[in-house]
Amino acid sequence: MRKRMKRSSKNVFPLKIDELEQLMKSEFDKSPDLSFSKYEHQNKKIAVFFIPYQVQPDRVENLLLTPLLESKEEWSNTAILNKIPLNSGKEYQQMDEILPGLIAGKVMIYIEDEAAVVSYDFLNKEKRSLEGAETESVVIGPKIAFTESLVTNLNVIRWNIRTPDLAIEEITIGKRAPREVRLIYLKSLANDTDVDTMRQRLNELDVDNVEDSNVLMQYIEDDSASIFPQFHTTELPDRTSYAILKGKIAVLMENSPSALIAPSTFFSFFESTEDLYMRWNSGSPLRFIRFMSMFISVVLTPMYVAAVTFHYEIIPTQLLISIGQSRAGVPFPPVFEALFLELMIELLREAGARLPTKVGQTIGIVGGVVVGTAAVQAGITSNILIIFITISALASFTAPSYQMGTSIRLLRFPMIVLAGILGLIGIMFGLCMLIIHLLKMTSLGRPYLSPIYPIRFEDLNKALYRLPQNFQYKRFISLSLKDSIRFSKRNAKEKKDIDE
Amino acid sequence: MEINVKIKPNMRIQAFYLFFIIVSMQIGVGILGVPRLVFSEAKQDSWISILVAAAYVIIVLLAMLLILKQYDNADIHGIHRDIFGKWLGKIFSTVYILYFAIAFYSVLLTYIEVVKVFVFPDVSNFVMGLLLISLTIYGVLGGLRVIIGVSFVFGVLANWILFLLIHPALQIDFNHYLPLFQAPFVDLLKGARATSYTFMGFEILFLVYPFIQNKNKVRISSLLAVTWSSLLVLSATMLAIGFFSAEQLERREWAVLVLFKTQSFPFVERFDYIVVAELMMVVVPSLLFLMWGLTYSMKRVYKVKQKLTLYVAAIIFLIGTFFFEKHFETQRVINFAEQFGFWFIYVYPFVLLPLVLLKKRLKKRKGAGSS
Amino acid sequence: MIKKTILLLIFSVILTSCVPYKQLEELGIINTRGVDVTENNRVETTIIAYQFDAQNPQITTSTTGVGKTIKGARENAGYNTNFELSPGQIRLELYGKETAEEGILEYLSTLVRDARVSDTMLVAISNITANEVLTVGQEELNTDVGQIIQSLIEKEVKEYSIPKTSLQHFLHIEADIGQDPVAPIIGLRNNKPAIVGIGAFSNDRLVGELHIDQAFLINTFLTNVKGTPMEISLPREPFVDFIFNNETNSMQPDKLEDKEHLTILVRISKGKGDITLKNIDDLHFEANVHLEVDLYESSELLSVKNKKIAAILEEEIEKEFKRQYDVLLAKLQEIDSDPLGFGGIYRTKKKGERLTDTEWREKYPNITVDFNVNVDLMHYGTIQ
């Protein structure tokens, strides 16, 4: 055993307590946090060592040290495991298990000359309590958001989906600083190929560390050059469980308050759980408004630029006069004017996101109202353009996914440039390029633009609009789930005449 | 080169999409000019000409399907190989490749000219060519699945233009269709012949047939496609005849586009500009299929990598856009494509059909003799 | 990725150097254009254009230019202004009387050739020169006279009082064999522009001036008219028994001698005329006009108490309309203009050779038409 040169994997036991102390001190020589205490009990030397701030000290004292030292028992490893009323007892023999165990909040007990160390779990993880969602705020429906604690998040998900059918696979990624990742899906529903693909991508990930699930998404998505996110990241447990119950796969990560949902389609980014809680006839128009606003957000300002730069013919005369008057004193070409204003909006948004909430609001008012008015009065922008820019900025914020909203907002810039170079033809070129790009994209190997292409008429009802629950007796066909029937279709109501 | 093509299961497509493939190939720039061409031959009886043409197209299509049915999963190049042998087959297939190239070129030039006349008189051919060809490259790189997706999505998205025709449709002068049955039979046939450039495009069936999964739906899907395009051409022509007086129509190059000039909404005064831009969505799918046909045929016949053909062809076409700047030069390219296509698409299948049937019978007899 | 970026860069460099800008505020956007022919066959154009200048709050300017062609005249007018005059937003094209009498097709076809020009612009003629209408009007009103003329015409078209006169309509009817276009005539009344009549064309030449009320008669054959107000004079004779006398407070007729006519104002809620060819050899046509009218006003207190008076009223209106149609046709035949489209009907019925324009011009003065007018009086308002 000693011949194995790799330090962490050698089995050093049995050894004397003092030797162990020396060894541990040398392992932790740059961070002198390790608490290593030695006790004499019934003529046996016992060492208890742990990292104080990783454990809950009073629990260690009450539940472990007191029973251990006040008992008359002759302790051995088996005796400890059998007699101490704690359920997380484990034996470790190798250093590469002991060291991470210490970091993960384990308390180690070593009785001299034993062949292993006994450990108990007393993790004291600092975490914030569950709070309402910040970035994806909802009006109706559950409002809690994920926290940075994986255990809490799993707890929430488990409580949402109370079935043993829920599979939660554990995968550790990151070579230098490993992190726990959980792959969550419904065993009886999720498509096996998709689960395998996801598991394989996670397992084969060969990186030193992953900061957050949003970073994880970038490592494992299909096309990293695309501007569109291919997996949905959400901070809502509600939304995550909804996706899992639909047969999708979720990935949760330790220390990350957002979940990944895969496979995602372009249209699923415009889906909010609120649509479900609303009745179908008010939910569908709301979703339609979101699609509309995406289109408006991409096209409105470029249209203005194209019309004013090249195609004044398409503007109705009355509008032409007001646009012309407001443009009269502006010294820049419309492209630069539009880019300047778009940039200003982006500045406001960025500043608002960085500043504390209260200051952020003030900045919004100062930037929006004061600077806007001043810019128009100073004659460097036209007021009609300000209206268009504001509408398209507002429209881009309607996307329920922050990632998608950002992508759409950024798309405007190349579109404006194209409109400024080639007018309507440029815009159409940009749109064609965009649609071809969307058609080429995949998410976990599944077409991104599904269910539009490849067309699945049964899925349109869920992806683009909603019909009454009675029509939604099928799950997404395009996901090729194991069981695509949600419930048997209720029999059509008997047709009744009036007054029967 | 094998006669039958083996297609991986994930490359298979549903016959449903054949409708969009054929419609997007047929309805391109051709439909813009077709009313004038037919009208100058058959006058107010143009509708008969178009119906005759549509019936003929359907017959050709049925002949093509009959040819394809004689094989398990063959495309035109495999059939050439089978019927004419290695060298002669290659020559025939090369003609097919040339046809794709010329058709691509004519579509490209026509759209560029439409843009120049209606929107940007000063734009250079090169810039427009660059736009369209970069779209083509980007799309073709995605493979047949993406190209079909483009034809499907664009096909659906471009349809809203049809609603803009309601306004001109309400202003039709029905007297323009009268008196009926005045054109002599020869003129009717000439009128039908004039639609040949518009109706071209269903020959893509010869190439995509092996990719189709449910072969039993091919017939209905392709027939519906041809019927739909014929209906579109027919209604565009009828609208133009009703809307314009005879003298006007004979002088309007792209009568269908001018129809859009009268529509206006409170927020958009002129729709012809938007329609010309929107036409890109109609043109790009044809360009993609023609380019795909070109590259795929090169791979089938000469085993050249599709990517190589794509890049080389794109550069050649891009340089080619320089040479035909004038209207009548563009017309010459279109006329050439039309002549070329006419014999190749409308006549050639009837030459091929008896040969294929004969060969099959011979084979059967041989098979029966040997066993 | 780097390759892509380089490609994109090259791309944008090439693109930026291609299409010249036509920014809105750097253009003089022509809104109304007047065309007159002066001596030596030169074209004088009067242009009312919008130009957006930060220093000048007045956005409409008018300039004139002279040239051999209409484009040349525009170029010439361009020397007077620091903005590039561009025709994409012309909404009204006004031709002087003399110009219109010589034919306006050459001017119209230059408009059509330019794809940027709108097809929905209005075509009108003036009874003096276009220049005078536009400049005097502009000075007098101190606003955009072009806009005012447009709204005048558009209002009347909306009421179906005059036929549609957009460029597309005008050209389409002009080019149809067997039909001639009409266009409103703009004149000055108290130095302000007003519609003073309707010009009848023979092909593209102005050949006669019709009364504005006759425009409605023509329009019934061109489209389904709806909601047109109209004043009609009827003979007083048949109504004497039904006129309420205010002085005697009875139905006794008043002094008759000074009044021969009773004037009523009706609103034609629906109207439709159609022409059938009764006899192709005699060129005998029948024109049926069906009108549904509401009574709005009458010059005297007419009481419509029962069916009988309604029937009389209907009959008198029919008679009056028939008389008007006959007058109109006589006038049109005299000037050889066929806006009602008898030739078009004849063409559709004619077998063999296609009808030519000259052939119809010869035949037109000899046609006979029976006008049958059928009037239904629908509502009488709140009083009887």
UniProtKB/TrEMBL annotation, chain B:
It comes from the Bacteria. The chain crosses the membrane at residues 15-34, 46-68, 88-111, 123-141, 148-170, 194-212, 224-244, 273-296, 308-328, 340-358. It is a multi-pass membrane protein. Keywords: Germination, Membrane, Transmembrane, Transmembrane helix, Transport. The keyword DNA damage does not apply. Belongs to the amino acid-polyamine-organocation (APC) superfamily. Spore germination protein (SGP) (TC 2.A.3.9) family. This is Spore gernimation protein. It comes from Oceanobacillus profundus.
UniProtKB/TrEMBL annotation, chain C:
Gene3D superfamilies: Nutrient germinant receptor protein C, domain 3. Residues 21-187 form the Spore germination protein N-terminal domain. It is a lipid-anchor. It comes from the Bacteria. PROSITE patterns: PROKAR_LIPOPROTEIN. Residues 197-381 form the Spore germination GerAC-like C-terminal domain. GO terms for cellular component: membrane. It is found in: Membrane. Keywords: Germination, Lipoprotein, Membrane, Palmitate, Signal. GO terms for biological process: spore germination. Belongs to the GerABKC lipoprotein family. This is Ger(X)C family spore germination protein. It comes from Oceanobacillus profundus.
